[in-house]
Amino acid sequence: MYKVMVIDDHPIVRKGLSGIIDSNENLEVIASASDGIEALAILEKLQDDVPDIILVDVLMPRMNGIEFIKTVKTVSKIIILSTEIDRYAVVNLLSLGISGYLLKDEAPNDIVKNIEKVLNSDDYVALSTEIIDEINKNKSKNQLNLSDRQIEVLGMVANGLTNKQIGKELFTTERTVKAHLTEIYTLLNVSNRAQAIAVAIKKNII
Hints:
alpha/beta, Rossmann fold, six-stranded parallel beta sheet, 10 helices, 6 strands, about 50% helix, globular, CheY-like_superfamily, phosphoprotein, Two-component response regulator, NreC/VraR/RcsB-like_REC
């Protein structure tokens, strides 16, 4: 069973999310906190029993989500749950290596599905459909010399497809997809999928 932590300054949100997550037989909320400072203290007490994934709000008193992510030293994967589509925040947080950015008004089942996908795959970055739609509105001319195929692969990554799924869509091997991603990372000067998406959003490539 995967262990989950919820960080949000609204008690009703923490309780609601915990109920949704605990209803899944593969997930268990082991801790919750009202802000980043409280969360850091709880994580220190948990020591080796750290959560597999942490759900974090962006806007919180004392220490917000961005400050928490910059401060925390954990192997846990992190998904942002926010009420707003803030393009700057999305880019900033993806560049910090988060595993997803979802909106709180997502269907509960979709939130749980995204949590499970992130936990079960290092290739998956969870992005809300509304965020992807907003990104697509701002596409501009490619200025980083990416090929059409590389832009296509990058778009599929942003849409949450794994290497295997991308290969299936493009009728090619998973190895070829990995080669495309290696070239993309080099051109964008990044080291992982989340950072690649962040640069692509910032440069309006996808």
